[in-house]
Amino acid sequence: AQSVTQLDSQVPVFEEAPVELRCNYSSSVSVYLFWYVQYPNQGLQLLLKYLSGSTLVESINGFEAEFNKSQTSFHLRKPSVHISDTAEYFCAVEPTGRRALTFGSGTRLQVQP
Amino acid sequence: DTAVSQTPKYLVTQMGNDKSIKCEQNLGHDTMYWYKQDSKKFLKIMFSYNNKELIINETVPNRFSPKSPDKAHLNLHINSLELGDSAVYFCASQKTGAAAETQYFGPGTRLLVL
Predict the structure, then answer these.
(1) Is the CB of B99 less than 8 angstroms away from the CB of A100?
(2) Class of domain A2-112 as given by CATH
(3) Chain B: nearest CA to A33, how far in angstroms?
(4) For all residues of chain A together, what is the average pLDDT?
(5) Which of A2, B86, B93, B102 could form a Cys-Cys staple with A27, CB 3.0–4.6 A?
(6) Residue B36 sits in which domain range?
(7) Which among B4, B44, B102 has the least Cβ separation from residue A46?
(8) Looking only at Cα atoms, what is the longest distance across chain A?
């Protein structure tokens, strides 16, 4: 079985400040790792994912996440946030051999002017 | 040209009623899912279908019955609605093939049971 923990339910931050959203997981098998974003009243959209290779993955809008196997973490970071980044961010895992995502409880990023 | 669409967007109904939510994807994907998002934003998989066959059923009450008439559609029928069924239901689709393919989500159906 897998579980995903997002310790921060809300992260308020000022515009242009850096931010880190934390994600830890546990699994008895290897997993693939994802970050999805949900803007208000919308469905989820993939932000980035880690399958293998370089442990640092980047999205097109400036977010990056680093896979740390020893700490079973996949924290999401952005060096400078915009108002438009305000959304709910979900960390998720997919175990190898089973096509089903297990999501964390989400972190609400609130960017203030 | 919406990739994954759901109808209705909002559904308000009384306890005990039966209702259906429809999902359609035009991405040519073979795998489709239903997720439930509760009031605390927690997302949990309910079902997955691959080529019209049920693959995953995550111990959902049998009042919930998914139906896949073809690869592009996965509908969710709910019998005898209960207050606890109030949630946002998301449909998603995924290409079968390499591992960890991106799931594409619909806009959600907000169900309120009174």
Answers:
(1) no
(2) mainly beta
(3) 8
(4) 93
(5) A2
(6) 4-98+103-107
(7) B102
(8) 44
Closest CA to B30 of B74, B77, B89, B90: B74
Q: B105–A45: do the CB atoms touch at under 8 Å? A: yes
Question: Residue B44: what pLDDT?
Answer: 92
Q: Do B102 and A105 touch (CB under 8 A)?
A: no
Q: What are the residue ranges spanned by the domains of chain A?
A: 2-112
Q: Report the distance separating Cα B44 and Cα B34, nearest Å.
A: 9
Looking up residue B58, the CATH number of its domain turns out to be 2.60.40.10
For residue range A56-91, list pLDDT tens digits in order: 999 988 999 999 999 999 999 999 999 999 999 999
Backbone angles phi, psi at B85, to 5 degrees: -80, -10
Q: State the total domains in chain B.
A: 1
Residue A40 or A13, more confident: A13
Please tell me the predicted confidence (pLDDT) of residue A54. Answer: 87
What pLDDT digit, counting tens, does each position of A20-34 carry? 999 999 998 889 999
Closest CA to B57 of B44, B69, B68, B46: B46
Residue B16 lies in a domain: yes
Q: Residue B105 and residue A88: Cβ atoms within 8 Å?
A: no
Minimum Cα–Cα distance from A6: chain B residue: B42
Peptide bond into B8 cis (omega under 30): yes
Judge whether B22 lies within some domain.
Answer: yes
Q: Mean pLDDT for each consecutive 10-residue tract of chain B (114 residues)?
A: 89 97 94 92 90 83 92 95 96 84 92 97
pLDDT computed for residue A102 by the predictor: 92
